[in-house]
Structures
1.
Amino acid sequence: MKLLLLGAKGQLGQALLKQLQQLQQFQYLALSRGQLDITDLSAVATVMAQYRPDVVINCAAYTAVDNAEQQAAACIAVNATAVGQLARLCQQYNSLLLQFSTDYVFNGQSNKAYTEQDIAAPLNVYGHSKLQAEHFIQATCSKYVILRTSWLFSEFGHNFYRTMLTLAQRGQVIQVVNDQFGCPTYAGDLAAAVLQLLQRYQQQGSLAYGIYHLAGSPAVSWYQFAEAIFAAHQLKVNMQAVSSTKWASLALRPGNSVLNCDRFANTFSINSLAWGPALDCLVAKFQKDGQKKYSG
């Protein structure tokens, strides 16, 4: 089975590529943005026509939530327009499209975890762009799995985990929002779940297509997640909990973006993504490989 991995140098792309290399089960072509910009519609069409993948895994995304408020056209071009073309091409070549979406498609006003049946109502440009991509895929592609995930962290790229370690080095007061709740998700765990899906698709030739929530557990606030990171690293830092209303941010963010992942677990019988053990593994890697790799 031939896989086309787009956005191979992003946080999730690197996690997937690492596991694909270890698994050695699939033939794959992994392309970074430098090798294939998915907004270059002609270039994407050429790659699809030449490679004819059985599965397209789209990890390419515009993820700078605040910047998107001022660069809406660029965000929509990557997250929506390009994905719309991918959906059409996947339909043309009978490819499965595996797309990643976000908890930010919700407005955060619910007092419970969001299910796939809850109405999406994004608060920011980034959320709107990802929801638009979902609609494009549903309208165009018959073989797709959209995974809504949240709060990705890992040893790769720019993320909250690495930012907290960088701030801890500076010895200053660290202010963290305590009134936004979500599900931290280790990119490596998400990648492992994706590969389990692909193994099933390879064996069965089909999947229960649709939209699923797949994120870590348990749900916490950003402040609680920061506390867990510092505790795992045995770091003593001066933390200050702040309200999101007092935090300078261009984009509005949902107060509650906790995802209910029961549908995915019940459909595919794949274990939930507990972020605590993943954090412990990252600490072990940190201690083995050195601090520089994991802060940034």
2.
Amino acid sequence: MTTTVPRTGRPRLARFVKTRYDKARDRQVLLGPETVVTLNPTGADILALCDSTRTVDEIVDELGRRYDRVVDDEVEAFLAKLVARRWVEIPDE
């Protein structure tokens, strides 16, 4: 089953998940129960924007201002993977 992310949804990190800078890795990481995921700069930027105030469309627009090339489908696919793992939530409106 494929997880879909609504473009009007307002993603946020799950309650038990957080991001932080890891000095040893010199990168942002996603921390969950018994999980550490090293994020690339784009992934870290996407998650920093997942504060439940912005829609997926607004996140894509903001990334478009920061980067030369942003592919909507790639942002959606990244978020869908995190939603499937329950690390990101998109509450019903």
3.
Amino acid sequence: MGNKPIISKQQILDAAFALASESGLAGLSIRDVARACNVAVGTVYNSYPTKNDLVNDVVGRFWNEALADRMPHAVAGDDFICFCRELARQLSEALARFRDDWLAEIAALDAQGLAAARKREEACFAHIRRGLVMALERDPHVVRDRLHDALAPEPLCAFVWDSMLSSIKHGDPSCQTLFSLLRSTVYEA
């Protein structure tokens, strides 16, 4: 019995992500990933029992790299609106890449694969919403007395994130209306 290459799930994901970034999700195959890793096809299947499992990790990695890992850091004293503007800029860039490269291919996944991809995406978005809450809470100019009920940090930041996504998807990457409303709602006039 010869020596089998030892490869981690992370190395397999790295190769799959590189292949998908280069040729799209449709071009991603277990065989090509195995070839890129210089391992047998079965080795890839040991880490990823189905192609859907692999695609879902690739999609999760896309969102993590595009947004969650590059998300602006909330520093005490920073302006919440400036934080949101930078996040909107990054989101706009990420959605453009995602649309161009992978959106149609994700829609072609079977129901189970699509549900798993959405779950990975939502985990990334939850991380971003937590970052928005942190940025809001660290902005010393926010009027704290206004942050209650529907405007408490968590529901407000969920609304901000959903509104940013919607604005950008509908061609308004500046999110001017949202940011104007925020400025007049959570800051002193």
